[in-house]
Design brief:
Layout lengths: L7 H10 L8 H11 L8 H8 L2 H13 L2 H21 L11 H86 L1
Helix pairs in contact: 1-2, 2-6, 4-6
Length: 188
Amino acid sequence: MSIPPPRRYIDAAARWLGRDAASFDAATQRVVDQADRRRVSATEPNARIERDATFGERMADRVARFGGSWVFIGLFGCMMVGWTLLNTEVLGRTAFDPYPYIFLNLVLSMLAAIQAPIIMMSQNRQAAVDRAAAEHDYVVNLRAELEIMLLHDKLDALRERDILARTDRIDARLQQLCEDVATLKAKA
């Protein structure tokens, strides 16, 4: 039969936070339980999110990363200049998309229609990463605060014990002095 760990963090957290342990939210309860069991609270939130990512989510991140890069902007600019030069200067009257480049507008519209939701998917994933990081920060900060408060309690207990020990020594010394005075009065 194993002995359950002390509930010093749970009791102390309830006292410090000014509410009953039963009213703790799930994150606070998890942190306090981990502290009581002497388990690490800090984890790597990005690793969990990357591990759980689907193929589509990973592809959305790659597309958004490439679509927001200078390489994409440079390649896209070169493609646009090449398209216009090809259809005005090179092909002349036999151009497949003469000025005002209606087909180019269609291609650009389709690209934007496809790229926008992919970028939104990537932004949603990034928001999830940010939420996980914020929760992780909360957990680490709460655990550190609990540890600091517990250390304050220990220091207060040590200080109180030291003060009581000094008081006992002073009391014993006063009693000794009183006895010495009483002895001197009795001799005089």
